[in-house]
Write a structure and sequence with these properties.
With about 450 residues, the chain is an all-alpha fold. The protein contains 18 helices and no strands. Helix 16 crosses helix 17.
Length: about 450
């Protein structure tokens, strides 16, 4: 049985024990105390585990004010905390950059990229804190009437999705503030893309999921807007908004011409003729782009391109310090199964059928489907051209220059030619031949 120890309280024995302590050696004192208390004496040596543990507790949790201050100083100045504060400050700065991009209007389409970086570095949950912070700052700026540019006069934001968010915001009391499109189109969308990059999704899956998210956002906004005053009322208000914004744009252009009328006259340029051309150009842009090509795949292809641009800029930001599949994407690695050709044929078949149906809704569905499948084969054709130019040893700088020139001066021909190469590869095996030729050369 385990021995039980107890205290014997006896004053006479206590006095005698201390007298013996003064006359005896150290080891006799220990024996007397042990016999008096009937408990084992702890060896108070500096290297005992017990004493070391007590010292550690005192150093860490002691009541000495100076030691607590020193401990706090050590914690604040530690490497981990310094890195944490730097990353928090970096996230705040990126949020401020997003506000600036959004306020410029022209660069608003890039506003989601800083939130991609924040989501990758800080996680999607913490990213919503910075998104909320930036939304509060933006709302305060709007409340003070601080805007770098007016949203209503910018042709780049004539998207029905932007208008849909403003339409819903007006019903909720956020008239003219543009906070909802900032929160959903750039904030949440950027966090979503950053999360996909962080989870190591390949770029193809990221583009596919982003397209689904974008289409889902459009459907949700249109349904919500239609529930407020009816879908026909929403479409009618959108047309009125575009007409009013176009008139504002023309009026602003006319004011600029009037300011420089004397200079134009000295150059032999008639200000009246120039004004007529501006009116004609604005009306053509409204009919052919805003109400024509844009809803028939233009907005969708723009969104896909912005995803590619966003991933590319994120890659430049991290400078090879982030090992993720999406950031390692090369156009030469793009692969597309031959079965997708049926999607291309079917989507363009819908476009052909629409010529006889003449339905605006069916036209939007058919053209957007055709754009998606055509873009896939455009990427495949672009990978073939990239392999061929690399095989010929053409420097990348000149490749990019030629690409930009073709996009600017021969856009339609370039798109059709590259997409056609992607389709012909199904039967001619152009990419396989180039890859084998490159391997044999190596």
């Amino acid at each position: 049985m385990k021995k039980k120890y107890y205290f014997q309280i006896n004053l006479a024995n206590l006095k005698n024990s201390f007298i013996e302590f003064a006359r005896s050696r150290k080891h006799l004192f220990k024996n007397n105390i042990r016999q008096f208390l009937k408990i084992p004496i702890i060896e108070l040596k500096s290297d005992t585990p017990a004493l070391k543990y007590i010292k550690e507790i005192i150093a860490r949790e002691g009541y000495n004010f100076k030691s607590r201050i020193e401990d706090l100083k050590d914690k604040v100045t530690s490497i981990d905390v310094q890195v944490e504060w730097r990353e928090v400050l970096e996230a705040l700065m990126l949020s401020a950059v997003t506000i600036f991009l959004y306020q410029t209007v022209v660069l608003a389409e890039f506003s989601f990229i800083p939130f991609m970086i924040i989501a990758i570095k800080r996680g999607w949950k913490e990213s919503f804190i910075y998104l909320t912070w930036s939304l509060i700052i933006l709302s305060l700026l709007n409340a003070k009437g601080f805007n770098l540019y007016s949203f209503n006069d910018q042709l780049i934001l004539f998207s029905p999705l932007h208008f849909g968010f403003q339409y819903i915001g007006s019903a909720l009391g956020f008239k003219g503030k543009g906070l909802l499109d900032y929160y959903f189109m750039y904030g949440i969308f950027g966090i979503f893309l950053g999360y996909l990059v962080y989870k190591n999704y390949k770029l193809g899956y990221i583009v596919f999921l982003s397209v689904l998210a974008y289409i889902g956002m459009i459907v949700a906004v249109f349904i919500t807007a239609g529930m407020i005053h009816g879908f026909n009322s929403f479409i009618k208000d959108y047309y009125s908004f575009v007409n009013r914004a176009t008139e504002n744009y023309i009026a602003a252009s006319m004011a600029h011409i009037n300011n420089y009328s004397s200079i134009l006259a000295s150059k032999g340029i008639s200000s009246l003729e120039l004004k007529k051309k501006i009116v004609i150009a604005a009306e053509m842009y409204k009919k052919s782009i805003i109400f024509g090509a844009a809803p028939k795949g233009g907005y969708l292809i723009k969104q896909i391109i912005m995803v590619f641009v966003g991933v590319f800029l994120v890659k430049l930001y991290f400078k090879d310090r982030l090992n993720r599949a999406a950031l390692k994407f090369k156009i030469t690695d793009f692969e597309l199964n031959d079965i997708w050709i049926w999607g291309l044929i079917g989507s363009w078949g819908l476009v052909y059928i629409n010529l006889f149906i003449d339905s605006s809704v069916f036209s939007i569905i058919a053209w957007n489907s055709a754009v998606i499948f055509s873009f896939l084969f455009f990427l495949k054709g672009l990978s073939i051209v990239k392999l061929a130019t690399d095989r010929l040893g053409i420097p990348q700088f000149f490749q990019y220059i030629v690409f930009l020139l073709m996009m600017i001066y021969s856009f339609i021909f370039f798109i059709v030619f590259i997409t056609g190469l992607g389709v012909l590869d199904i039967w001619l095996y152009l990419k396989d031949k180039l890859q084998k030729s490159s391997e044999e050369k190596d």
